[in-house]
Amino acid sequence: MPSPLKLAIWDIDGTLIDSRKIIQRAMNRAFERAGLGGIAYDRTRTIVGLELTEAVLKLAPPDYPAERVPQLASYYKEAFVEQRQEPGFEEPLYDGALETIERLNDQGWLLGVATGKARRGLDIVFDHHDLHRHFVTFQTVDGGPGKPHPRMVLDAMSEAGVDAHQAVMIGDTRFDMEMGRNAGVHTLGVSWGFHTPEEILEGGAHDLHHEFETLNRALDAFGSKVEESAS
Length: 231
What we know:
- The longest helix is centred in the C-terminal third of the chain and has 19 residues, at about 210-230.
- It is built from ten helices and six strands.
- It has a six-stranded parallel sheet with strand order 3-2-1-4-5-6, sandwiched between helices.
- Helices cover about 45% and strands about 10% of the residues.
- It folds into two domains: about 5-20 and about 90-230, HAD superfamily/HAD-like (Rossmann fold, 3-Layer(aba) Sandwich), CATH 3.40.50.1000; about 20-85, DNA polymerase, domain 1 (Orthogonal Bundle).
């Protein structure tokens, strides 16, 4: 009897990729170009994972004209692209990320992505790190509602051919946890990205992990539970 399918759905920024510096620099430059005097990291980090226009709207001053929000989002995109051309640019995988992805792949897991990035941005990152070959489903904000709406997780499950009890969402923000909960799947939070442990737990994480070692054990335990339920 073949092993039951298991799907691990990954957030990207702050979960697999350490993009804290590039996102903060891009947002700060965008706010400076918009005449808003820049923005602090502790504000930027709170909106990472949301669709970009929604994110900058949350960060903009209450009296900021609504018609100027798309321009502010455009400034962010421009600043992000600029950084990729600058000397010393880095957008590294977290230590342990690639090893975990390869291990799960070798064990027969299906892997998916649910990210607030557009597909173009996701492809750039995955091409750089040669990650496309490990994943079977790629969900971005281009396809419909972003986090915390469950659409991306539901679409990932549909494409992978799994039910909710066979899927787990892994991410570093409360939006990831809320999205997973809204889709009825198990949620594993990680603390090395953008949101604080308290924020992640408030979002509904079933478990919170501070290193890949314990995250891997949690994934193994989830996989064993799926297999036991099918026997």
